[in-house]
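User: tokens in, sequence out, please.
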């Protein structure tokens, strides 16, 4: 039996989980929080990083320098309309996003949010496992594989699932440590 498609789905789940975690504001300036913010650039929704240089000169500061100064107001509006919770500081040439220190209460909220994301990722991995096992059972019903090969496939898929769930837990622990120690 071919496990590549199951493995591919599980790896995509890990990638998506990691990307979502990168967007979580952990008290440090991380340009990834701007990834989902788009501006109206000549009638086309465009990510900020495609119309401006985004840099992190200090641990708690993001500087956005548009290549075309005329989009400065659009970028500012898009950031204000987004849910990142930071007010942009526009000086006419660049936009600065200053990240405040996180208090203990906010850190705990972030950890809850992160754990929820991790649980969603685990559910997605388990769904991939279920799909893989159902596929194996269908192949066994059709007579393509034997009962022993079905058991072997189920065990192999379970091992894959366990390793990806462990990887999610490891990523979660690292991010949790980052959030609580900033």
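Assistant: Sequence out:
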């Amino acid at each position: 039996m071919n496990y590549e498609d199951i493995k591919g789905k599980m790896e995509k789940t890990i990638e998506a989980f990691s990307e979502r975690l990168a967007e979580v504001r952990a008290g440090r300036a991380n340009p990834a929080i701007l990834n989902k913010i788009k501006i109206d650039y000549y009638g086309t929704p465009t990510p900020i990083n495609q119309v401006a240089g985004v840099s992190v000169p200090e641990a708690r500061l993001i500087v956005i320098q548009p290549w075309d100064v005329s989009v400065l107001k659009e970028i500012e509006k898009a950031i204000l309309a987004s849910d990142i919770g930071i007010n942009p500081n526009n000086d006419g040439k660049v936009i600065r996003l200053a990240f405040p220190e996180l208090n203990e209460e906010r850190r705990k909220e972030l950890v809850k949010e992160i754990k929820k994301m991790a649980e969603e990722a685990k559910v997605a991995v388990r769904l991939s496992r279920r799909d893989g096992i159902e596929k194996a059972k269908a192949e066994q019903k059709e007579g393509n594989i034997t009962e022993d090969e079905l058991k072997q496939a189920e065990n192999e898929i379970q091992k894959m699932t366990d390793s990806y769930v462990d990887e999610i837990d490891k990523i979660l622990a690292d991010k949790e440590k980052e959030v609580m120690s900033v």
